[in-house]
Amino acid sequence: SQELTGRRLSAVSHAVGVTMPVYCARAYGGIIEDVDGNRLIDLGSGIAVTTIGNSSPRVVDAVREQVGEFTHTCFMVTPYEGYIEVAEHLNRLTPGSYEKRSALFNSGAEAVENAIKIARAYTKRPAVVAFDHAYHGRTNLTMALTAKSMPYKSGFGPFAHEIYRAPLSYPYRDGLIDKEWATNGELAAERALTVIDKQIGAANLAAVIIEPILGEGGFIVPAPGFLPTLRSWCADNGVVFIADEVQSGFGRTGHMFACEDEGIDPDLIVTAKGIADGLPLSAVTGRAEIMDSPHVSGLGGTYGGNPVACAAALGTIQTLEMDGMLDRAKDIERLMKDRLGRLQADDDRIGDVRGRGAMIAMELVKSGTAEPDPELTKALCAGAHAQGVLVLSCGTFGNILRFLPPLAISDELLHEGLDVLAEVLAGL
Ligand code: PLZ
What whole-number distance in Å separates Cα of residue 165 and Cα of residue 144? Predict the structure, then answer.
């Protein structure tokens, strides 16, 4: 790994950072094996991507078969069945029983951009609302949607215009000011809707985009009622409601999609990451009349819905549906919340434990206060990494430790990872 670090630093742009300076040789069942033979416990899944487990058997078989038949034709030139089949599954699996359509792309950011294009074509309005702490990508339009400056935006402007930001529901922090705000999402939604109504106006607004559970911004779960109130305001005002489920989707939270927990059906839903077990694929799925509103050939791209990535997605979907994977996410939630809850009871530096399914986080604060503690978070991550446990941090203040284990991980490995974490924390 040290030798590869030398080569990386002389060949790869230093602007591409790495979490751990170890180099992967293979990965399976919640373990990453590096080129030196070290085995790490993977509590990150490559940022919520290998949800069903790295190199999952049905994915490997489907990819092997497809790559031997053809690797690319471009769906816009000579289409193929795999793309259509992925679209059919997406239309079936996403919430809402009305007629839907899908379009496939390569990355989460690209799909978010396309969702905005579609919403603008449909509504013929310019403005888009995103929220505090939002993360939607690193391309120009998605940088404008993303909230946090460092490292995502700083120095990379000017950004796309007609993007506005509204306040989020953040139960832990809202609750410090007023207890009711922690539980009553309608209050927080009214605060956001006042900003939207007074500063933009529904008549100018194409779309509201939100992550049902925020990812990079800190695994924030809005208070119950927040999402449904926003959703119904959008319906009443002809505004397209877009759920960015790039991180929370595809079984991560114990449902196929996180918005199912709130019983909402978005007009458009953006998916990526967990959709294809690591092959680059993303999608926009939604109401047929919205998805069909741009002119013919208005959407596309050379690689969007690549046949090999589609084969991987079909293997992934089959695995998620056949192997009781969603129940496994719920089991992981119980195990993690029990263990982290017990840690929190003994340690007032853990301000909050939250999340759903295999998307769980703890918010670290200065002892006895609610002041974010990014230094402690960094030290805890570094200590865990040194002991072979791969954990990630996130959050606007860099003080959230997040857990995104693959659903293929065993209870034993999870416990081992959490034992290490508890030990490192106790020593800090
Ligand atoms: N929307 C909700 O979580 C990607 C980014 C990591 P891409 N999150 C991980 C990093 O530092 O770049 C993400 C997301 C949500 C959109 C995206 C963007 O997806 O596939 O990275 O473009």
Answer: 10
